[in-house]
Sequence to fold (686 residues):
Amino acid sequence: MSVVSTKTVGNIAIIVIDNPPVNALSHAVRSGVSEQIAINDENDNVDAIILSCAGRTFCAGADITEFGKPPMSPSLPDIIDEIEMVNTPVIAALHGTALGGGFELALSCHYRIMDTAAKVGLPEVNLGLIPGASGTQRLPRLVGVEVALDMICSGKPISAEKALKIGAVDRLSLDDLETETLAFAQELLADKSPLKRIRDITIEAAPGAIEKYRQKIARKSRGFLAPFAAIRAVEAAATLPYDEGLKVERQEFMTLISSSHSIAQRHLFFAERLAGKVPGIDKKTPLRDIKEVAVIGGGIMGCGIAVNFLNKNLPLTLLEVTEEALETARSKIEGIYLSSVNKGRMTDDQMQKCMDQLTFTTQYDDLSTADLIIEAVFEDIDVKKQVFTKLDQVAKQGAILATNTSFLDINDIAASTSRPRDVIGLHFFSPAHIMPLLEIVRTKNSADDAIATALKIGKIIGKTSVVSGVCYGFIANRMSSCYGREAGLLLLEGASVSEIDQTLFDFGMPMGMFSMLDMAGIDIGVMARKNMMVGSYDDKAFLVHDALVASGKKGQKTGSGFYIHDPATKSKTENPEVEELAVKIAEEHGIKRREINAQEIEDRCIYALINEGFKIVEEGIALRASDVDVVFAHGFGFPRYRGGPLHYAEQVGLEKVLKRINEFADLYGSKWWTPSKLLVENSRKN
Ligand code: 3H9
Fold:
């Protein structure tokens, strides 16, 4: 059956695209649309054409799987031109998410009507691209330069209400989209409405507006190519005739599509979706009903975790040991919501609705009706085992018992219950209500339906989930500790805190290792290492950290750590004590201090991460290399335009990476630098 067909209602032709799941504009769809538009335009019995989609959404864009393959005619820009130039009015009927090329297709139509629940947007920047089918030329003409810049450079879709307000669509459909589009078409015909061709609209930007916008996004879009290419294309729309502007868009699009940035960002797009596919778990795996949630522990982590569920209006019970601790937890959660209200992200009513779902208790018996219980207590195996022993006594049969441990052995925790099948890890990242990653840890006994339910929960609370096996630190923290080890060793060997941080920042990380430690609290790592076996990590790499914490300098929260923080100006300066400590510790350990260049800093930190990532895949802790990329992109802000550590390694060349790791093994010993067997194997295939 053809993916594009036409049905006729009186004098109106309705073209329907039916290409599940998201009606991507594949070659077959483009050919079908081109053909059906021409046939209907030539049909004397057709007075208006409606362009619509079957299934859950209007077209979600060009077919991304076709990128990088030889182009096939007709191209999207070709059919978009054809549609705009026909003499029969064409009306786009939008539902679901009309994104990228899908929205561009709608912009080629003479009129647009939109379901109230639908969204439109140009998210190409998320794929390292710009709209390449006239979106950068048409949208500014329709809604103005500033609004278009915001939509194109942020990539964020907008609601139907906003789309109507800014003039991106002509009408909202409040009820049945097809019926209302047919009525709209008849109205347009009765009124003899002109064919509105966006290309004919003339625009200009307010003086300086484009430059101002460029500066506005400079920090947020640091390192990315696409947002700045988008600005150049929109600038062309505001300053050149339509056809000339289109040439600028095409040139920018073609440069980006073969760039390492877009390849990396497209890799992450598919990697994020693949991460949710777990062998042995599919649509047939039963799901457990999650109607009530409980969180044990009202610290920063527990409160952040709770907010995820309250936001979805799921009843949640928070357990703490004392009434005072519960009161502190209540104010923390209220604080999170108040900050959202103050920023205009939610209303008082919405806040109240979330808070109404929250119950506090000090009694384990009150958790007996919860379907999912997440433990977020102190990171100590004995404390956690005690909690799980109690849970085993009170939790109802079939409840999922999850731990938020970042490092500990969940097989061991599960063994403290009589129902290890129900025990999993749900590892959130701090701040838990904001960070997008959820590591779902599958123990040797975790039931498939518990894991399937955890994946579903991740979706409900808007997280990107990755399944990890059990090992110390799972995927994220195990890799991060190698990265941190090299930063710590470099400090002893002679690099300064700011040199290391600046190099990692320049590589594209949101902040350097020491800024991150100061922000998270240096004491967290110090405590975590207390649970590690002697010899399982390089203790000298963390001696400066230990000394700082011992003298009460735990980072931002105590006013100093690797940096001295000024809360009034929110600025920081390097803490001179760190260098003194580094010199002293280096001397005690016979480490000769020297000048270290930025390239070595980058290679040591990033290649340590890569090597560990390959080992994690080799051991089966991660299901696949791309899962490691998703974890580091979402958990630690690894620059998306590098696609995650293992994709980046491929881009650099595995042979080159391996050679450098071997050099480090020769220089610094093989204990920490033995190359992963998988890396060695894969480098031979390259
Ligand atoms: C573009 O349009 C360029 C043009 O400007 C110029 C061209 C010349 N293509 O996300 P989901 C697959 S660039 C191919 O899980 P949801 C996806 O991989 C494009 N496949 O569903 C998944 O496959 P699988 C600009 C696509 O409901 C399945 O569909 N557009 C595409 O959570 C379901 O996806 C975008 O960037 C595609 N375009 O979210 C929009 N889109 O089942 C990208 C999805 O095998 N798409 N798939 O894993 C999205 O943002 C979300 O998919 C959407 C639905 C919001 C639509």
Remarks:
- Residues 21-22, 24, 60-65, 76, 97, 99-101, 104, 123-124, 127, 129, 131-133, 135, 273 surround (S)-3-Hydroxyhexanoyl-CoA (CB under 6 Å).
- Residues 598-618 form the longest helix (21 residues).
- The mean pLDDT is 96.
